[in-house]
What does this fold into?
Amino acid sequence: MAQYRVLPGEVTSWMDRLRRYFPEMGDDEIAQLAATEVSLSHGRTSSLAELLAGWAAHVDQLDAEAQRTTEHADSWTEHDYVAALHIRDRVEQGLLAAPDAVRHLAADCLARADGKFEVMTIPDNEHLLEVIVSRSERGEGWWWARIPVRGPVRDGLARLAGRSDR
It folds into this structure.
């Protein structure tokens, strides 16, 4: 496992997000998550800390989008939603590869973001996600079987499927 040390005063956007979403986490715990590397495509890697922060930030943004009553030029689309689900896949990949202590720490943090995601989504009984991502192109996690209750992402999926919003 790569060594990573949080230096006093060190600031990174993912670290700021991680501290905002999980304020109970100390520097040693963040360092453990940061030292757990997850393989991405094309030989790239990311730390479990970065991925957890990214998933929490995406869930918050998707929740904010769902509260909008009209679409804006900067509204997230169904493609942003799929990107968020891929981030959640990578978090799961990191959990499976992490040592037990790191896995338990990450799972506690993840439960909060996952819980919020579950509240703002419903089962995709109409298979709306299949309009933009085939079953073979997506992960196996439970999050792939859910879509937002409302908002621009839900509207976009319904529009692509040729259905009304509800």
Remarks:
- The helical segments are 13-21, 27-34, 48-67, 78-97, 100-119, 152-160.
- The first strand starts at residue 37 and ends at 39.
- Residues 1-8 have pLDDT under 50 and may be disordered.
